[in-house]
Write a structure and sequence with these properties.
With 247 residues, the protein is of the alpha/beta class. It has 11 helices and 8 strands. α1 packs parallel to α2, α1 runs parallel beside α11 and α7 crosses α8. It is globular. Bound molecules: 2-phosphoglycolic acid. The site of 2-phosphoglycolic acid (PGA) has 13 residues, from β8. 2-phosphoglycolic acid binds next to β8.
Length: 247
């Protein structure tokens, strides 16, 4: 079955890197049946779009403003992203939550902005190490979903993908056990079923992210209920990311 394989470059790469990257990467994934997206920094989006036009690869942005336009120095709106050909946007990544103090309320506004412009959204959720150790992960994930999706209609969920990224696994090489991921898939599905319907929960698209690489990708992607992967560090290497995309 088709998987969604998304690469988050974070704050890495120069323009030249993006040029070399796309030249190596695009031909290597041209036969992949999976849905592939790359999320370069804002400054390279237009350039990346030009490079990707001959392929099926989607273009993603790593963030979006919660405001639509006006005096918000340094912000980038959903409309701006749409106008340069962005297809999909990451919202609520743990680095935004932790380092830039983004709360669920702002994340909810960002999601609504993005959806109103027809962008797809990847909503990232996940617990810290201490929340996991103190058995608080269920309530944290439930809250991130219920507050993140607050006020959205069920028919809008088709444009939302939920990425489970345990924060203790991001960039650490420490990965959860399969049964821990399976449990969180259930938590996410139950939350969606409680907030919406059983049908919405069945259709929910859930990704796993956190220290995914070419060696472990297949085992994560095969977990029941996992529809794909959100890859950070390993997506910076076009050869490695192509291997992940071709699983
Ligand atoms: P990682 O990052 O693959 O480098 O752990 C994942 C992410 O932050 O999305």
């Amino acid at each position: 079955m088709k998987k969604l394989i998304y690469g988050n470059f974070k704050m890495n790469s120069t323009l030249l890197d993006i040029e070399k990257y796309t030249e190596t990467f695009i031909p290597k994934v041209s036969l992949s049946k999976n849905e592939i997206a790359i999320f370069p920094p804002f400054t390279y989006l237009m350039f990346a779009k030009q490079k990707l036009t001959s392929s099926k690869i989607l273009l993603g942005a790593q963030n979006v403003s919660s405001e639509s336009k006006g005096a918000f120095t340094g912000e980038v709106s959903a409309q701006m992203l749409k106008s340069v050909g962005v297809d999909i946007v990451l919202i609520g990544h743990s680095e935004r939550r932790k380092l830039f103090l983004e709360k669920n309320e702002i994340i909810n506004k960002k999601i609504k902005e993005a959806l109103s412009l027809g962008l797809k959204v990847v909503l990232c959720v996940g617990e810290t190490k201490s929340e996991r150790l103190n058995n608080r992960y269920t309530e944290v994930i439930q809250k991130e979903i219920s507050e993140g999706l607050k006020g959205l209609y069920e028919n809008e969920l088709k444009n939302i993908i939920i990425a489970y990224e345990p924060i203790w696994s991001i960039g650490t090489g420490v990965v959860p056990e399969v049964k821990q991921i399976e449990e969180v898939v259930k938590i996410i599905k139950t939350e969606i079923s409680n907030e919406y319907s059983l049908n919405a929960s069945k259709n929910a698209k859930i990704l796993y992210g956190g220290s995914v690489n070419a060696i472990n990708a297949k085992s994560f992607a095969s977990i029941p209920g996992i529809g794909g992967l959100l890859v950070g560090g390993a997506s910076l290497n076009p050869e490695e990311f192509a291997k992940i995309c071709n699983i």
